[in-house]
UniProtKB/TrEMBL annotation:
The lineage of its organism: Bacteria, Bacillati, Bacillota, Bacilli, Lactobacillales. InterPro entries: AMP-bd_C, AMP-bd_C_sf, AMP-dep_synth/lig_dom, ANL_N_sf, MenE. It catalyses: 2-succinylbenzoate + ATP + CoA = 2-succinylbenzoyl-CoA + AMP + diphosphate. It holds the Pfam family AMP-binding. This is 2-succinylbenzoate--CoA ligase. It is an enzyme of class 6 (ligase). Keywords: ATP-binding, Ligase, Menaquinone biosynthesis, Nucleotide-binding. PANTHER family: ACYL-COA SYNTHETASE (PTHR43201), MEDIUM-CHAIN ACYL-COA LIGASE ACSF2, MITOCHONDRIAL (PTHR43201:SF5).
């Protein structure tokens, strides 16, 4: 395929490509800025191919760096700045990189990053340092090879064992195509990006911009008051959210609504609970629930807003380029699609274990179809509890307690038990301490007795990944 940014700069040179902090760049201007940075980056990565780490923030500098490295044909290892130095060092070692680019703004957020060079034995470059380097003639890839790896992204690691996921240009392209078929594509579309660029939820918005010729409104981090104002004042049509972001926005939803062009929220991370769904329906605020993963470069299943109430708890039906089936024996969700990645970095064995003999990708999620062929995700295969011989999925319990009035967040993990093997424990966030009897009685109305948590723990917050998923293994540590 022809270089995506080159193509848009030729087709729609004056169309807005990016808005950040009230400054905007057209596709042509973004192209020119990228050429300059391309020439400077050659001092660090050479002029073609190779691999480098990037600690990106949601800033113009990080956005531009991703584009420039992509043009150089460099494999970009997108690192999560929220991780500990130990976790980052482990990923850097797996990726076999000796240089990491660091967005300057991250030094203020994570003081530990100043020690990364020494701890991980790598050369760290601030993006401001790159700007001061000598400029060479830009060496820009004229074409993107379908099978070439362009980004490497470590899985969220809800189990604590992430994999480096190899994402190709083909994967990103077909992910964008599937999204366009699902959500439609309009001439005035603008996507508000408040999710991290180092995560597939944020990076996929960048890729859609290049493929659709669509502007992105980029903000540094999610803050509900700021986002509400932007959704009112800017001509945003789409925004990606996780359930916690959506709930915080609903609490501030203005009487006059958002701007007249706003079309919908794309919800990932988890299915919406019925209470929140009914609130969205009452406000006539479309929410498209979706299911996807790093290994599929974003959404592969989605639920239309018109079907949401009749299929509460479902993530929808497979998008057009996607084939999906449920393994009859294991009940695991399996996928075949052009957006499924070709492998894991340095771990061929782990990836091959996820591919069936006939070429389907095993997601690690357990699910089922209803009679109308809507997909329901019951939970992660590795997170299922077996208590007294009964299979229990934390997601089901969490959804049941989502409607408890005084609880803002709720999560479940399993702990060993001498009598039952394992039992579920509930962790909740609330302004007040709630009696255990009250929580048990509430559970009895919605769950089988063996699914009701045996203990309840009040916490200030839940440990989450960049995509908003709960790190259950960290919750379990609190009980040791």
């Amino acid at each position: 395929m022809e270089n995506w940014l080159n193509k848009q700069a030729a087709l729609v040179p004056d169309k807005t490509a990016l808005i950040f902090k009230d400054q905007s760049w057209s596709f042509q201007q973004l192209r020119e800025e990228t050429w300059v940075l391309n020439g400077k980056l050659q001092n660090v990565v050479g002029d073609l191919h190779g691999r480098i780490g990037l600690l990106a923030a949601n800033t113009f500098d990080s956005y531009l760096t991703i584009l420039a490295l992509q043009d150089l044909g460099v494999e970009i290892v997108l690192l999560n700045f929220r991780l500990s130095l130990f976790e980052l060092s482990k990923q850097i070692n797996i990726a076999k990189i000796n240089q990491v680019l660091v967005d300057d703004s991250l030094q203020d957020r994570n003081k530990e990053l100043g020690k990364l060079a020494k701890v991980a034995d790598v050369k760290c470059w601030k993006l401001s340092q790159i700007k001061r380097l000598a400029e060479h003639e830009p060496n820009v890839a004229k074409e993107y090879e379908d099978k070439r790896v362009t980004t490497i992204m470590f899985t969220s690691g809800t189990t604590g064992n992430p994999h480096g996921v190899l994402q190709t240009f083909k994967n990103h392209f077909f992910s964008a195509v599937g999204s366009a078929i699902n959500l439609g594509l309009q001439a005035n579309d603008m996507w508000l990006c408040a999710v991290p660029l180092f995560h597939i939820s944020g990076l996929s918005i960048m890729m859609r911009s290049l493929i659709y010729g669509m502007p992105v409104l980029l903000i540094e981090h999610f803050e509900e008051k700021q986002v509400t104002r932007l959704l009112q004042e800017k001509q945003v049509t789409l925004m990606s959210v996780v359930p916690q972001m959506l709930k915080r926005l609903l609490a501030l939803f203005p009487v006059e609504g958002y701007n007249q062009n706003f079309r919908c929220f794309l919800l990932g991370g988890a299915a919406i609970d019925e209470k929140t769904l009914r609130q969205c329906i009452a406000l006539n605020l479309p929410v498209i629930q979706s299911y996807g993963m790093t290994e599929t470069c974003s959404q592969v299943v989605a639920l239309s807003f018109s079907d949401a109430l009749s299929a509460v708890g479902s993530v929808g039906k497979p998008l057009f380029p996607v084939q999906l089936r449920i393994n009859e024996r294991t009940k695991e969700i399996e996928i075949k699609a052009p957006s499924v990645v070709p492998g894991y970095l340095g771990n061929t064995v782990a990836y091959e274990k996820k591919i069936t003999k006939d070429g389907w990708f095993k997601t690690g999620d357990i699910g089922h179809y209803d009679k109308a062929k809507f997909l329901f995700v019951e939970g992660r295969k590795g997170e299922m509890l077996i208590s007294g011989g009964e299979n229990i999925f934390p997601d089901e319990i969490e959804n049941a307690y989502a409607g408890f009035p005084a609880i803002t967040e709720f999560a479940v993990c399993g702990v060993p038990d001498d009598k039952w093997g394992e039992v579920p424990v509930g962790f909740y966030v609330s302004r007040q301490i709630i009696s255990e009897n009250e929580l048990i009685e509430y559970g009895k109305k919605k769950l089988a007795h063996f699914k009701i948590p045996k203990y309840f723990v009040r916490v200030e917050s839940l440990p989450r990944t960049a995509s908003g998923k709960v790190k259950r293994y960290e919750l379990a540590k609190k009980l040791r």
